[in-house]
Write a structure and sequence with these properties.
About 45% of the residues lie in helices and about 5% in strands. It is mostly helical.
């Protein structure tokens, strides 16, 4: 009987496998995958100039779609 078995008893073989990177347990995610994304921007001051805001808004959908593409099955709003 080796030292690990003396110290840990029946858990020794399992811990030895873990130490060697062997773990046959199924992977269970800690949380559900993200199903949707949103994109928002906060300006430093209230903005009422539509000509200023319009180009900024054009970038948001593209950024949101990029995030969705990285996460298969997600949709943007």
């Amino acid at each position: 009987m080796d030292l690990l078995s003396l110290l840990l008893g029946g858990q020794a073989p399992v811990l030895r496998q873990f130490a060697n990177g062997i773990d046959e347990r199924p992977l269970v995610p800690a949380r559900e995958p993200q199903k949707s994304f949103s994109q928002q921007e906060t300006f430093d001051e209230d903005v009422t100039d539509e000509e200023y805001v319009r180009p900024c808004c054009g970038e948001w959908p593209t950024a949101c779609l990029r995030r969705c593409a990285r996460n298969a099955g997600a949709c943007g709003r």
